[in-house]
Amino acid sequence: MDWEAEVRALAARLDAVEKRAQAAEDHLAVANLQRIYGYYVDKSQWEHVADLFARDATLEINGRGRFFGHERIREYMRHFGPPPPGLLMNHMQLQPVIHVADDGQTAKCRLRALMQVGRMGGEAMWGECLYENEYVKEDGVWKIAVLKSWQVFYTDFDKGWAKHAMPLLMDFDDLPPDEKTQPYPVYPDFYLPPYHYRNPVSGRE
């Protein structure tokens, strides 16, 4: 028996298993990172939210334009301020489709958020958005590199999407973006943000 060949084969199998195990850990870490983002946003923990972003990250939410770099993203988050009394702001992170790059240093994820936003005695809305995000392992820690969120709909809670739809949320008057973005259709119009992946069965884009 060629013991050297067998040892080489076993070493190759071990390397493959280690690579798959690391990919599984990375997949879980990215999923947890995105869910953690949602929990922090729920409770207006803006410093925690900003800490999740990489140094050179990009933030783009709805039609408010792009914000570049960690400090500008922190400024964007702080703009919302502390939660007022009676605030309910749930951002449920759902249906993640995650792909980790072969080198284990970057990843992409498509997911949606279902939102309950409102305040006791004031306004209340249902909402939904789609994300196409990118992540990077920076200094050995997974962080958000690109957060891009498309508004799907917002509607008054008591009317619902069958009777009411809000227009695209655009720029803050008191916080201009680093780069403006083009508006896009929102419900009741149809718009499909591009996928970061191909059809896994047909291979079509």
From TrEMBL:
The lineage of its organism: Bacteria, Pseudomonadati, Pseudomonadota, Alphaproteobacteria, Sphingomonadales. Keywords: Coiled coil. InterPro entries: NTF2-like_dom_sf, SnoaL-like. Residues 7-34 form a coiled coil. Residues 23-147 form the SnoaL-like domain. This is Nuclear transport factor 2 family protein.
